[in-house]
Amino acid sequence: RDRCGMTLQRFTREEFLTTRWNYQLGEHVSLIAPTQNGKTTMLFALVKHTDFSFCRIPPIMLVAKPRDRVVAQGLADLEWKETEQWPPRKAPWRDKPPGYGLWPKHIKNASSEVNNAHLAKAFEPAIGEAYWGGNSVLVADEVYFLCVLGLQSRLTDHWTKGHGMGAGLWTATQKPSGTTQASIPSFMYNSPTHTFLGKDPDRRNRERFSEIGGIDGKTVGETVLKLGKYEWLYIHRDGPTMCIVEA
User: Fold this and answer.
1) Neighbours of 49 (CB within 10 A)
2) Per-residue confidence (pLDDT) for residue 109, from 0 to 100
């Protein structure tokens, strides 16, 4: 129950995805939860249940880990094409894929840390095309790493001006903060239309959630603390409305 004595509705994941999830052009999506809470799995579930027919180019997922079995399997299941560069190499004999996974060779083939400048240059063209072209969806599975690369301002363009251009940004991260050198912009959790928060025992992180506009921060903090593993508190900013998505 929340502070007003109202019980938040609970939905199985399948119920939520098939009856409650409704994504519209230009909306932003954020997932925030500690590691091992299923952020990537939830991202792929949302992608699977979203109609991207409005996209000028197929949606793009930025992959920032050297090895990730969940991402590799998710891209394969969706039949999204893996590409090491942007724009992708042309394959005129094939139809355009339903989506792309941008997995730069500097990351995927790396056995040790590589030059961040190279990685930033690998991701920047895709971020720019999705923003300037509009009618697009850009998925960043680990936004903190993109901030480490110095791409905060590029992402902030999406969060602050992308909605009106039809440029939707979907992001995931472990916590709503970061180091001084790579802080996550507050726009990630106070501008999205759709926010998913996982269980978080860190009081400082929960306090940051009070910056989400239009909701009672204390209720959100108390609810997030009580969630089970792989459960999510879903907040739709327009309303606002909240519910719990079960594991």
Assistant:
1) 14
2) 57
